[in-house]
Amino acid sequence: MTNEQPAPDGGETISLGNKPTLISLYTRQGQRKYLTQEERQRFINTASDETARAFAFCCLLSDTGCRISEALALTPKHIDYADGVIVFECLKKRQHGIYRAIPASPQLLHQLSKLTTSLSHNERIWPWCRMTGYRRIKAVMKQANITGPQASPKGLRHSFAIAAISAGVPLNLVQRWLGHADMATTAIYTHVVGNEEKQIAEKMWRAWQHTDEI
Fold it and tell me: Is residue 58 part of a domain?
């Protein structure tokens, strides 16, 4: 007897026992849940027209793959400028006080430093509720003309993971950055058709075309 059941939207498998939660990058209708590289760049370009605080929020989710609740929990003390990392509390863990550090680009750190100069050590950078943060992301997605299941904070998280793996980041490191308890969950991202696989397919298509011409 299984101890797992499908999520209501058919996108994820929810663990009811000790087994890890397995994600799916496609809905039951075959729609992808991750942003393409072009969509991700379009999202960031559109977000640059927002306020500095909203723009930094969009960049944070896109550049670190953090969960929206983890982003909203950030305070200035969680940003280590000397080491170039942002420290997130893994809020999906049953036990509190479990943290992970994710490298941040100089550009993102610069954005955050400007936002936090007037904040106290423990003051939240984004004093929003989760729904407000979610709506901010959705609004930028709509403005960027990105629609579908991928137009969400989770879509940014998925695209970050795929971009990291495509860039050759080791799977165990991606697992740590995403805060996954089991590597089997992270390995799902390797199933996305990458550039190398597309190039192989293109060679096959060219061979077919040549055969048809004979």
Answer: yes
